């Protein structure tokens, strides 16, 4: 940058190179598409039907849309907590309808995934622990 002869050489127009460049012709072709016989596994799929998530106060932490038949993490925690607090209101049938899930999957979810509870011990019992 401090040598002016280099800057002059860079900005100089070279007519010989320009005429050579005009003679260049580039032709590009995509390779032929090969169809693999995979039994239809590469066929285009039907567009997945999605639903808006049912988000409460944790909405900023979660996704906004999920495929039908699936739930987001915040929804899973919410429905498990609702069932834990009010099992007679939030039955497996109601959860299945509310979140567009299969009933057998909801039964498995309620059976095998139990939200934990945080408990604080009173200060006077800490010595007993």
TrEMBL record:
The keyword Nucleotidyltransferase does not apply. The keyword Nucleotide-binding does not apply. GO terms for biological process: mitochondrial respiratory chain complex I assembly. InterPro entries: NDUFAF4. It comes from the Eukaryota. Keywords: Ubiquinone. GO terms for cellular component: mitochondrion. It holds the Pfam family UPF0240. PANTHER family: NADH DEHYDROGENASE [UBIQUINONE] 1 ALPHA SUBCOMPLEX ASSEMBLY FACTOR 4 (PTHR13338:SF4), UPF0240 PROTEIN (PTHR13338). Binds calmodulin. Interacts with NDUFAF3. Belongs to the NDUFAF4 family. This is NADH dehydrogenase [ubiquinone] 1 alpha subcomplex assembly factor 4.
